[in-house]
């Protein structure tokens, strides 16, 4: 039978089979999607060759838990998922091609934060573009990072230096009191966030650069730069988890970062040059003058081989890490004072008893004698941790054992501090704001007790935690001594959260303020 005859009378015999290559590929892709959809941890974990299965949600087959991190409260969503999958010790999940684990229990949290295997941090594109890969927060573990850590512990955040700036901290607090009083005299209510943020920024600027600014003066440009930087560091960037999208810069993050860095280099570079000129003119004498952070780095630049770029990165990071956290926590505390007038009154009574009900301003030296006020701060850190996911995650630099599981190198590890501080396993009545709990049973918050470690723990613990607490304690005491914080309108306060770089109040606090001690404002 000739081919022409077959084609004429039996055309179907020469048709390709129904199961074509395209169909085979489609079937294979469908099977892969099904596999990933039911794979614990999702896509990134499905592509990892490991014999250990870590419980966790599969999420979307391609994007993983991207919807969680693009929401306003990922810490709450992750806590619910950990409970659902009974994975509080360690839960696996994916965001795009990035492997994650997260701990919601103190035991495994301590293992992660204390392990040398998690000594690095994953560097986001925005952090790299904003120079933070040369600063302490994101610099890879090694000699350069150890030098920065030594400088911060010995020089920048030593008790001596913290005490040296106590007078200026007190001055900033009094200025905030006066500013609130002025605003209240002109309005029915006050939005507290801006005053707290600017006061905190001013304090950091004096500590770091030796400069202070007026509330409505030259500091506006600086505040805009800091706000832009916070937004860029806090935004969810698709390029961090889908490398191919990095070329496109779809969200414009890289472009905005480079524009901001140009301004930062000019701003900080100018201040460094001004400090160098003071040395030439003899206005600053090494070893004799009390300097700021710029002076400390210039003193050490030859010993530690610090370039101008290194110093700019370190100084800029200090501003970022030292400004917003303090202001945000104070706003949460004041919101609680408005909601709990009996707690506010108890703290004010403690302050009044210490100062003898006189016009004497409370000072930093008084804080150790104000235990209830310190308990209020601890309870606020428990209820509203500024970094509920401990802000910046860790990166496994080699295979690491956590519990009974081996975590593969290259995995990003997180700790859900919010889940720990709101768990009934570790706290009685965790949803109640009760500072008295710390009067009965004290808990260390500096990193040794992972039931409450708002500043992290281990090698990457926040180096400025003592300075931050010194500011918060003093300013809270000053604001409570001079002012009474009362509800505005229907008396409600919206405690809804919004996680950006730090966990902020979704609706800024608006309240009324009544002067308590008129003499203290003079």
TrEMBL record:
<feature type="transmembrane region" description="Helical">
    <location>
        <begin position="20"/>
        <end position="47"/>
    </location>
</feature>
<feature type="binding site" description="axial binding residue">
    <location>
        <position position="462"/>
    </location>
    <ligand>
        <name>heme</name>
    </ligand>
</feature>
<dbReference type="InterPro" id="IPR036396">
    <property type="entry name" value="Cyt_P450_sf"/>
</dbReference>
<dbReference type="GO" id="GO:0004497">
    <property type="term" value="F:monooxygenase activity"/>
</dbReference>
<keyword id="KW-1133">Transmembrane helix</keyword>
<keyword id="KW-0812">Transmembrane</keyword>
<dbReference type="GO" id="GO:0048608">
    <property type="term" value="P:reproductive structure development"/>
</dbReference>
<dbReference type="InterPro" id="IPR051996">
    <property type="entry name" value="Cytochrome_P450_78A"/>
</dbReference>
<keyword id="KW-0472">Membrane</keyword>
<dbReference type="Pfam" id="PF00067">
    <property type="entry name" value="p450"/>
</dbReference>
<keyword id="KW-0479">Metal-binding</keyword>
<dbReference type="InterPro" id="IPR007110">
    <property type="entry name" value="Ig-like_dom"/>
</dbReference>
<dbReference type="GO" id="GO:0005506">
    <property type="term" value="F:iron ion binding"/>
</dbReference>
<dbReference type="GO" id="GO:0020037">
    <property type="term" value="F:heme binding"/>
</dbReference>
<keyword id="KW-0560">Oxidoreductase</keyword>
<comment type="similarity">
    <text>Belongs to the cytochrome P450 family.</text>
</comment>
<protein>
    <recommendedName>
        <fullName>Ig-like domain-containing protein</fullName>
    </recommendedName>
</protein>
<dbReference type="InterPro" id="IPR002401">
    <property type="entry name" value="Cyt_P450_E_grp-I"/>
</dbReference>
<dbReference type="InterPro" id="IPR001128">
    <property type="entry name" value="Cyt_P450"/>
</dbReference>
<feature type="domain" description="Ig-like">
    <location>
        <begin position="341"/>
        <end position="394"/>
    </location>
</feature>
<keyword id="KW-0408">Iron</keyword>
<dbReference type="GO" id="GO:0016705">
    <property type="term" value="F:oxidoreductase activity, acting on paired donors, with incorporation or reduction of molecular oxygen"/>
</dbReference>
<keyword id="KW-0349">Heme</keyword>
<keyword id="KW-0503">Monooxygenase</keyword>
<dbReference type="InterPro" id="IPR017972">
    <property type="entry name" value="Cyt_P450_CS"/>
</dbReference>
